[in-house]
Design goal:
By secondary structure, the protein is α/β, with parallel strands linked by helices. It has two domains: 155 residues, Leucine Aminopeptidase, subunit E, domain 1, CATH 3.40.220; 104 residues, no CATH class. The longest helix is centred in the N-terminal third of the chain and has 18 residues.
């Protein structure tokens, strides 16, 4: 863990291994296959000639020629024939076999294209679901960083029902904020006039924040009464949930090293996507998610498309961080996790 969806040219990925969407001959072709062979140079084709081809659903490994990675894993995906000819299992087998080969060769990072979704015609949304599901299953019991590399964002698609649901929720809630934004702008204008009498009246009526100095108590005493930190809340929630640390950080799409930093430092402040990822992993309802974010110094706002998407998934009871990341990527937002 974790899994990243990135827009990039796979031949430029600086990982231990990239996966080539190959044909059964392993001698190069069109699409991703042709790009990888051209970038790698003639040494790759020469080595492929010694392998004797490869069956659909399987994979074989070679060196990487001039590519910045160490290995190329050549996976042969199925051609789409309507979905009733074992295409899903063959595609899942490509990912499983490639990941197993990468593990056998000591790879800590692997980059995949969306296998079979180009000239082989596999529907892109379904191909993505197979890829994410198979990779997620592998990573439950293995430590590896995996990238799904999308070359053309315009060709990236997710499940239509999910996309339409998120898009509708964004449109509805952004529109609902119009009046709030007008009030905010009016508030800015008021502040610009320096209406100190109103400000002082509101401040005097506001409750003192938790842990704040009261009745003339010293700053030192106030600091001693700080609220529970993000790290403390996270560890408490993990214990209450009954899940292990490993299960939690994998569900959050966060790597082990970052989790260790959080565990060892009670004042550690994560990024907002990482904080939300842990709330998702713990399946926290919206109010508890807001509380966890506040302890890390953040908030959820309807002025942010990212925040509205997170709210949509929590309200719909979908806590699958990888499905959420698929939607975030589709709407050009930062992904959850490390």
């Amino acid at each position: 863990m974790p899994v990243y969806i990135v827009q990039n040219d796979i031949t430029r990925m600086k990982v231990d291994a990239i996966v080539n969407a190959a044909n059964t001959s392993l001698l190069g072709g069109g699409g991703v296959d042709g790009c990888i062979h051209r970038a790698a140079g003639p040494a790759l084709l020469a080595e492929c000639r010694t392998l004797g081809g490869c069956e659909t659903g399987s994979a074989k490994i070679t060196g990487a020629g001039r590519l910045p990675c160490r290995y190329v894993i050549h996976a042969v995906g199925p051609r789409w024939r309507g979905g009733g000819h074992g295409e899903r299992e063959a595609l899942a087998s490509c990912y499983r076999t490639s990941l197993s080969i990468a593990e056998e060769h000591g790879c800590e990072s692997v980059a995949f294209p969306l296998i079979s979704s180009g000239i082989y015609g596999y529907p892109k949304a379904e191909a993505l679901r197979v890829a994410v599901g198979t990779i997620e299953e592998f990573l439950r019991n293995n430590e590896m960083t995996v990238y799904i590399v999308i070359f053309d964002r315009g060709a990236y698609t997710i499940d239509e029902e999910t996309y339409n649901g998120v898009a509708s929720y964004i449109e509805k809630n952004c529109a609902a904020e119009d009046s709030g934004r007008r009030l905010f702008r009016a508030g800015e204008a008021c502040a610009a006039r320096m209406d100190t009498a109103v400000c002082e009246e509101e401040l005097s009526a506001a409750p003192a924040p938790s842990g704040a100095a009261k009745n003339g108590s010293s700053l030192e005493e106030a600091v001693k009464n700080l609220d529970e930190s993000f790290a403390e809340m996270l560890l408490r929630k993990i214990d209450e949930s009954g899940m292990s640390d490993v299960e939690c950080y994998k569900r959050a799409n966060v790597d082990r090293k970052l989790f260790s930093k959080i565990r060892s430092d009670r004042l550690y402040r994560p990024s907002k996507p990482t904080a939300i990822a842990f709330a998702i992993a713990l399946r926290l309802p919206l109010e508890e998610t807001r509380d966890m974010l506040m302890k890390a110094g953040f908030a959820l706002s309807h002025s942010s498309k990212f925040d509205v998407i997170i709210e949509y998934f929590i309200k719909n009871g979908n806590y699958d961080v990888l499905e959420i990341n698929e939607a975030l990527f589709a709407f050009d937002q930062t992904l959850l996790g490390a």
